[in-house]
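Here is a tokenized protein:
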Amino acid sequence: MTALTHRQRVKINAALAIIHGNGHDASGVSRQAKASAVNGVSLQQGYEAALNSFIQSNPAMGNEIVRTIAVIGASDDATVNSYHHALTEYNATGSIVAMSAMLPTMARDSVALAIRNGEITQEDVANGGLETALGFAPSDAMTAAAMTPAAAPAQAAQAAPRVRKRPRWHLPPELPGRRPLPTITTRPGRR
């Protein structure tokens, strides 16, 4: 079984957090991926297949998952580490405080990626085209976050207070920390 890179783990953990946050069985996706890995497929390919299977069953969540993975793939290492710390805190405690602190960074990174890819212009964003950039309809808080100037991502993640409570959901220890149906890829060369 080939080990996942740090960036791949963060992408997978983010996808699983989205799945769990929408009330679906994220651990079932993990079990499906690991079962594929036991049968000779790499863990990365197992997760790609499991996530693609989940998206085919739940197409309404596809754009959000694919966009999130693309944003993490396009982010710099420091921002990926910030996402990792927020996801780790969420998985360890069940608290969404650290994840909420990363929403402004995720929103701004999504907008920057959509502009860089030519999907939208800055003018589109100013005129309410944020849904195209994010890949899903944003909440009012996320819309406001995308329009505010960037703060240092590490500061945003560290600003969240540490809350300890019994976790509602936990990823396995080995995971520390397109339209119409999107597909997932976590390969290192394909951010």
